[in-house]
Each structure stands twice: as C-alpha cells, then as structure tokens.
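Propose amino acids for all 224 sites.
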C-alpha cells in the first residue's frame, strides 16, 4: 500500500477550480501533484501553482498545473510534506533542502495543510534542523550554532563532490539539538545569526492541519 499516494490523493480533492496553490516539495507532495494532474485532466479544471523547488516546478508543469509567481499572487492553500510533526503540530522541514521557499510560501498562504505518513509523527521535535546559510558565512554560523547547543554538519552532496548547493545557491547545515523544547524560540535565535537565510523549524502557529496517512490506509486529520 502506498500511504503517500493515499494522503496525496485525499488532499488533491480539496483543491477547487481556479485556486492558487502553494506547492511544497518531496515525495509525498509528488503524489499530491500527480493526483491534482489527474483531476485537471479528467475534470477540465484550472489550477495555478506556486512551486517551492525545481523538483515541484518541473513536476507541476508536467501535470498541467499553471505556474504563477508569489510576486503576483498569494496562495489560497499551501500543501507540503514534513520530516517530523510534533504533538503540538510544530514541524521540522528541509531534509530535502527546500525549506526556505517552503516557509515563505506556507507563510503567505491563507491555509497551510501538511501531508505525511504516520512515520513522521513524534511527541516532540528531535530530528536534525536544516539551516540554509550564505556560503561565505558557513564557519561563523557553525560556531554560533554550537553556542546555541547544536551540533552542526555541512550537508554533503551525493553524486557531486563537496556540499549540497540549494536551489538558492546556498549551503545547508544539519544541526542536531536533541529534543527541542521551545521550537519557535530556537527558530528565532537561528534566524538572527548573520548569514542564516532560513531554518527548517515551522512553529505550530503556521500550521492549519496535518493529514496523516495511517498504515491501515485511513487518513486522519489533526488540528490544533
Ligand atoms: C523538503 C521538505 C519535505 O517536505 C520533507 O523532506 C518531506 O519529504 P517526503 O514527503 O519525501 O518525506 O521539507 O525540503
């Protein structure tokens, strides 16, 4: 059973003809985009998309979603996956390296819906926090992250030597903070370090609901 497909299809049903949708990144969102593409074809509806990465832009284009820009539109709805979802619905995102645009698009949307399978649920946040950094600032930012109690590692690329370079031309530090008791406070402190572009903590106040695909094939909706 493909749980990501089930939850992606479920949320694709929420999109209405003419909607502007913020489109996150990752394998669960890929299922959402494909399901939306099927609806566009079979129901002859028009959906406008604001993608958050090259991955979601290319997939949206090949599935009939019309790409528009955040400079001209704010989305009615943003849909995205997550790497970890805490009980209070705060999130860690960015294990796919796209959290900066994902946060900007989610923040600008009237409604932010998260789609995950149940493996992403956790009592509190304790996964590593991705931090996007301007390349020349990487050493200073690592020092500052250590002073906040984190253990930073530069994310290494696969099938390329050296570090991952984001869609925005920056580097990523994956930072282990253990259990994060106050996610919003840590997020604010990370973003106040000069050279940090954005971090992957999404405070719960940003999230409207989380659709969770269960192993049974059922989809549960978590709200605050
Ligand atoms: C990318 C993200 C993704 O939403 C997150 O990694 C979840 O991906 P997947 O659905 O493949 O597990 O934050 O930056």
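Proposal:
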């Amino acid at each position: 059973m493909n749980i990501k497909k089930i939850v992606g299809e479920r949320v694709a049903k929420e999109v209405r003809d003419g909607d502007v949708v913020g489109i996150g990144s990752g394998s669960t969102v890929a299922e959402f985009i494909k399901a939306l593409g099927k609806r566009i074809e079979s129901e002859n509806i028009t959906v406008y998309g604001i993608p958050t990465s090259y991955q979601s832009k290319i997939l949206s284009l090949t599935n009939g979603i019309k790409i528009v820009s955040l400079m001209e539109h704010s989305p009615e709805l943003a849909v995205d996956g997550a790497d970890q979802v805490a009980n209070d619905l705060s999130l860690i995102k960015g294990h796919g390296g796209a959290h900066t645009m994902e946060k900007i698009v989610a923040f600008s949307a009237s409604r932010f819906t998260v789609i995950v399978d149940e493996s992403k649920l956790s009592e509190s946040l304790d996964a590593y926090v991705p931090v996007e950094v301007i390349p020349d600032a990487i050493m200073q930012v690592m020092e500052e992250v250590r002073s906040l109690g984190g253990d930073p590692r530069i994310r290494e690329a696969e099938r390329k030597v050296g570090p991952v370079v984001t869609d925005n031309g920056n580097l990523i530090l994956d930072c282990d903070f253990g259990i994060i008791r106050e996610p919003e406070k840590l997020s604010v402190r990370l973003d106040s370090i000069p050279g940090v572009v954005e971090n992957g903590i999404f405070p719960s106040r940003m999230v409207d609901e989380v659709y969770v695909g269960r192993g049974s094939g059922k989809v549960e909706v978590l709200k605050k």
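The pocket of ribulose-5-phosphate is lined by residues 24-28, 80-83, 93-99, 102 (CB under 6 Å). Residues 129-198 form a domain with the Alpha-Beta Plaits fold (CATH 3.30.70.260).
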